[in-house]
Amino acid sequence: MTSSEILDAAKALITGDRQDDYGDARENLTRIGKLWEPIVGAPMSPEKVALCLVQLKVSRLVHSPGHWDSWVDGAGYFGLGGEAAAKSAQEPPVIVNELTPAEKDYAWEDVNGSRYEWIGDRWHIRARGRWFEGESRAADGPYRRLS
Fold this sequence. Notes:
By secondary structure, the chain is α+β, with helices and mostly antiparallel strands.
């Protein structure tokens, strides 16, 4: 199987049958991330989920390098992850202090990788490996929703 054939097969899968079977890829990756977060104990963005799925295929290929289906699936996951990352980068910045109560049900991340969660009546901020509490944030973003 040539590289073009692998990429063509991956494209056919992610834009055809699998999209029909599982729906929008980014929504599916987001849903998987929400299921994985309690297990891994960390936020799982759609692009991180795609990277984990790529690694699953890499692990399988280490054992069976001639299994073409894993090459195709890995290429597909790279494509889906890249698309999810591009969409995340296009999302407008969020001012955390202006979130609605419903929006506070999500975890948020700033450009430095600090995580923000609304617990009780205040923000809990994980930065540099430690949790901090605060009434509000000193900086206003940009932030992106993690879950």
